[in-house]
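Lab notebook, entry 389. We have the chain sequence and a SMILES string for pyridoxal-5'-phosphate, and the next step in the workflow is to get a structural model of the bound complex before anyone spends time on docking refinements. Request logged below.

Task: model protein plus pyridoxal-5'-phosphate, output structure tokens.
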Amino acid sequence: MKVTALPLEQLRLRTSEKWREYPDDVLPLFVAETDFPLAPAITRALEQALRAGDTGYVASRNPLAAAYAGFAQRRFGWTPDPARMRSTADVSMGIVEILRRVIRPGERVIVNPPIYPPFFDLVDEAGGTVERVPLRDTGDAWELDLDAIAAALVDGARAVLLCNPHNPTGTVHSAESLDALARLAEEHGAVVISDEIHAPLAQSDAGFTPFLASGEAAGRIGYAVTSASKAFNLAGLKCAVMIAGAEDTTAVLRNLPVEVEWRTGQFGLIAAVAAFSPESDEWLDGLLATLDENRRLLASLLAEHLPEARYRIPDAGYLGWVDLGGLAWGPNPARRILREAKVALSAGPTFGAQGAEHVRINFGTSPEILTEAVARIGRMRTDPLAGQE
Ligand SMILES: Cc1ncc(COP(=O)(O)O)c(C=O)c1O
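Result returned:
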């Protein structure tokens, strides 16, 4: 099934953040929403719910955990136990609620910048202190800096907030590095919370491993939080899944206040069940094929219009992390690009100090929009004002 992004005039009818933050002369390639239509099984499920007025509270006995277990089995060869899952409104809330229960106020939580900027705030919201352990750049890839993580754990950090796959670099962490991380955490009495919101978008050549499936230690000390919201563009409907791998970590989920689960959106749950059902597999395969084309298209567009840019094709997702340092457009090129090229990108410095001179480009869009956006930015190279703040 070919999955094709909607044309601009239809997208402009949307009222979400991506389409309302900037005026119509700006091409929005910033926030992680996609420009694709909904998967047909989701549209059908939501239409049926609307017709039935099925807009009450999420049922305690609901099919989400079983649907996710089936999805994980088909897509990742991993069968998490539905009895070890709870739902909540979104991945961010799941992370905060778990963190609150596994650290004491002020304790340190490791994050790996450049990182999805709200990670800094989520640790803060949960009462923790952010400990930055940057990803290691090997020259042609990024990886977890296990030595530096070990040092932080020896020094007292109590938790690791992992991003797998990683936003913004699109890195799928190797099974070996995940297992090594889990062992280190266990050795030092720490836990790992793995944000796997981009996992359904891991390309098949990347060999994605769910953290909890990476080894026995991960099963004992890990939590995963995930959702259908990035792959299926359902962020506004509010539904995420928290997963534990052992009896005592499951007890943490079970003992969360009942309100944490009651905040799950009924439409979010209905849509997520349809997304995770086998009915949506063909659509997701089609989306992955489209994103595979787009991640390569971005490489060729940058080579053509911005040859100074450095970009590595991501393993997963629809976010491209681009180093524009070669252009000397200053520490935050997104600001200048918005003003001069009328293209909205995510600002690199918000992802941590490693994001200076970087931008994040959302390529979950049509080849036409992506091409126009990069061409517009490329025209700044010939602008005599470029490079001056
Ligand atoms: C890594 C990561 N975690 C969490 C989120 C936010 O998810 P939610 O809206 O479910 O809180 C995003 C959104 O882009 C993300 O990229």
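Notes for the group: Residues 41-279 form a domain with the Aspartate Aminotransferase; domain 2 fold (CATH 3.40.640.10). Worth checking against the assay data. The chain has a mean pLDDT of 97.
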